[in-house]
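#dry-run=false #mode=assembly
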Amino acid sequence: MFETILFPVLVVLAIGLVAAVVLSVASKFMAVQVDERFTNVREELPGANCGACGYTGCDAYAQKVVEGEKTNLCVPGGAAVAKKLSELMGVAFEEAEARRAIVHCSGICEYTEYVMDYQGPKSCAACNSFYQGRGSCSHACLGYGDCAHVCPYGAISMVDGIAHVDSDLCVGCGMCTKACPNNLLTIVPASSAVFVGCSSTDKGAYTRKICKAGCIGCKKCEKTCPNGAVKVENNLAAIDPYVCTGCGACVEQCPTGAIKFIL
Amino acid sequence: MKEILMILVSAIFVNNFVLSKFLGICPFLGVSKNLKNAIGMSVAVIFVMTMATAVTWPIYHYLLAPGYAYMQTVVFILVIAALVQLVEIILKKYIPALHKALGVYLPLITTNCAVLGVALLNITEEYAFVPSLFNAVGAGVGFLVAMVMFSGVRSRVETADVPKSFQGLPSILIAASIVALSFMGFAGVVDGLFL
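#status=ok
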């Protein structure tokens, strides 16, 4: 009786008890203090983990807000969430700034060409997985409109073989930035005036050969910019929209026209 | 040494837990969508499998073996679940970076059949303690190999133009069966390798 029934039951009970005691002691002594404000901030955020704020998810953004980041970066939450976060953090409420998507590629049919007659599934992701796409530039817009398909506002259309964002319809939700296999779309403040219409990190000479409108990394823009908003890294110019004043000096200097005014 | 190498190769390729024994199919299909998650999950599995073996082996041989061997499944589940929770608490406190990397996956594999499977198989195969540990590491690495390979296959399948009735899981399952078939090619390799 004892041998066959009671002992096994006691063994499981004992192991369970030991595990329970160890776990509860561990959770008591090794508890990690979570900032109360973090929990509150996190609860106010929509939890979409969309990454439109520039951080990897709502948890990451909440952490940054507690550390003093701006409260108006949440795009899906908009002004309502920004207001609540400002209250929680005790800072002045700023209107959530309008944002929009831009396409970092200027490779329209006139400036560059296709190097293969691609016959596969008509999606950018599929085309890109096949020798990095059909165009001569491996960083270029593939033109099948994966971004346009995911855009909930119908703001993206294919014009001359590349994606074009309609600034009146775009709200800057950032869905397209994730759909593009070449990461050509980024979200910028709607007030920014100038952008780099190229994503190629190839060497300048090669870029010049395959595309008439590509950034060749000549650094003229970097030298011209009076505010230091333009930086050239990996043969590609990048403009910090928060420093740029939109004076347009770089647009005039750019030899290939890769840097353009946002229309 | 030879025995340990044999166990490792056998666990990684010939008796691959996912593709030959069909254990741990749930995370295999669920988390293989992209490479980063696949690797995170696999590292967590390697970690937990090794820990679980280190704890369940002594429990079986010193507590259950004399007469209560039939209890192994129940006791192992209990011990592994408690162990993973404990490991999570410890990681959170002392190695936050590792906890952040494995965090989401640790609770997912508390009751994973591959983890339980490796603990039970070590007993059935009658491995000693150290070979058991290597078998666990090998099984985990085999899981990693399967996950990494399949996430590559999957990224191609997802973009392919499949008929509507095969979209999503059906095409993934077919792809998985073909990958599993390719692993059949390893059958018998171990005996030839270590003559």
